[in-house]
Design goal:
Cofactor: Mg(2+)
GO biological process, one term: carbohydrate catabolic process
Protein name: L-fuconate dehydratase
CATH architecture of the largest domain: Alpha-Beta Barrel
Largest sheet: 5 strands, parallel
Number of strands: 12
Pfam families: MR_MLE_C (PF13378), MR_MLE_N (PF02746)
Shape: globular
Strand content: 5-15%
Distance between the termini: 41 Å
Order of helices and strands: EEEHHHHHHHHHHEHEHEHEHEHEHHEEEH
Radius of gyration: 21 Å
Oligomer: single chain
Catalytic activity: L-fuconate = 2-dehydro-3-deoxy-L-fuconate + H2O
Strand order of the largest sheet: 5-6-7-8-9
């Protein structure tokens, strides 16, 4: 048996605010950041577990402290029993009554638990010699449902429901795995659409996205309606009348404002409106969905846990579900979210783009295709072309699709040189200081 000897954390921040990469109506100056953890063991194989929580700058130190608070649960414990019972580890960590009080099951501590869970999955996948998507896809339906905490879900999804979904997908797993490795998983790009970009840059990047094979782009909206109309018109001139263009308000609007604003943009045929209002307002999303139909509503990158996703689906508040690899408590809770989406017949198009999110969330979509929904129809993963060079196994996009990774692990390991170069020292990068 080997033991965990350390949870090593670091505060890593990239000065993306200087170029306005990531800028939108609610986040005008993000510095893409990672509260990073390495789970170290004394095993002779030298395998470490890497994971992170994505933030946008200030507060990343608070997120690091949240991960540090979990060290007492794991340091000194044998690794193998933990890896053999990942469902039990998940329930143990989210069940710490004193830490749970800070949520419950949401916010800084819940995301910190996700980082630790994801790091343990990294060790498990590396020991198995498989990428995470493949490791999950080859588990039995019974093993997969054992990972899920069904508490609070059973009025929408029971263990038997989940088993039925997974067993129905089981016969075609091998064929879908081969298909995935041959053709990849569809992506769409937000790169042209950041709110701080000039019209010329928007037009240039939209042309490049189409030339690169992407079949959808996304524009940030919500700061000024006249600007949004102008920018959307320019995007339509470049992309043509039928090319899918989604829009994203990043929680900017009141419910009534969202309905009016989206209807004012309806002439441009948005593929969906993303995060139109507070991510916690389930009934508000349902009202918006009714008010802007047939334009679809998408949300989920800030949904705090599986219970919020359950309610969004029950209320028919979303027509596109967007999971995030690090917002909820890691792989286990995202499996619950994927099963919920499959139960309600809603496509999952994950949020990505922030540092490392493309690398991480692709594994969940690929697992969904092979072992849960069995479909890529109407499904795609967000892609933004920056900061991939900092990862040991960067996302590989070909012809607008994610190439299935074959390297063992969860894909979240950042290069040691990048971690060292961008370690936060307290300087204010938004003023142009880069240490």
């Amino acid at each position: 048996m080997s033991r965990i000897v350390a949870l090593e954390t670091s505060d890593i921040r990239f000065p993306t605010s200087l170029s306005l990469d990531g800028s939108d109506a609610m986040n005008p100056d993000p510095d893409y950041s990672a509260a990073y953890v390495i789970v170290r063991t004394d095993a002779e194989d030298g395998i470490e577990g890497h994971a992170f929580v994505f933030t946008i700058g200030r507060g990343n130190d608070v997120q690091v402290a949240g991960i540090d608070a979990l060290a007492g649960h794991l340091v000194g414990r044998e690794v193998e029993p933990l890896l053999d019972d990942m469902g039990g580890v998940f329930r143990e960590l989210i069940g710490d009554s004193q830490l749970r009080w800070l949520g419950p099951e949401k916010g800084v501590m819940h995301m910190a638990i996700g980082a630790v869970i994801n790091a343990l999955w990294d060790i498990k996948a590396k020991r198995a010699g498989l990428p995470l998507w493949q490791l999950l896809s080859r588990m039995t339906p019974e093993e997969i449902v054992d990972l899920v905490d069904f508490r609070y879900l059973t009025n929408a999804l029971t263990r038997d429901d989940a088993l039925a979904i997974l067993r129905a997908a089981e016969p075609g797993r091998a064929d879908r795995e081969r298909e995935l490795r041959a053709t990849g998983y569809p992506g769409y790009t937000t790169s042209p659409g950041w709110l701080g970009y000039s019209d010329d840059k928007l037009e240039r990047l939209a042309r490049e996205a189409m030339a690169d094979g992407f079949t959808q782009i996304k524009l940030k909206v919500g700061a000024d309606l006249d600007d949004d109309i102008r920018r959307f018109r320019k995007a339509r001139e470049v992309c043509g009348p039928d090319f899918p263009i989604a829009i994203d308000a990043n929680q900017r609007w009141e419910v009534s404002e969202a309905i009016a604003w989206v209807n004012a943009l309806a002439e441009f045929h948005p593929a969906w409106i993303e995060e139109p209002t507070s991510p916690d307002d389930v009934l508000g999303h349902a009202e918006i969905a009714r008010g802007v139909a047939p334009i679809r509503v998408a949300t989920g990158e800030h949904a705090q846990n599986r219970v919020v996703f359950k309610q969004l689906l029950q209320a028919e508040a979303i027509q596109v579900m967007q999971i995030d690899a690090v917002r909820v408590a890691g792989v286990n809770e995202n499996i619950a979210n994927l099963l919920l989406a499959a139960k309600f017949g809603i496509p999952v198009c994950p949020h990505a783009g922030g540092v490392g999110l493309c690398e991480a969330v692709q594994h969940l979509s690929m697992f969904d295709f092979v072992a849960v929904s069995g479909s890529r129809e109407g499904r795609m993963i967000e892609y933004v072309d920056h900061l991939h060079e900092h990862f040991v196994v960067p996302t590989d996009i070909r012809g607008g699709s994610y190439t299935a990774p074959i390297t063992p692990g969860n894909g979240m390991e950042m290069k040691s040189a990048s971690r060292a170069e961008y370690a936060w020292t307290g300087e204010h990068r938004t003023e142009g200081v880069h240490v």
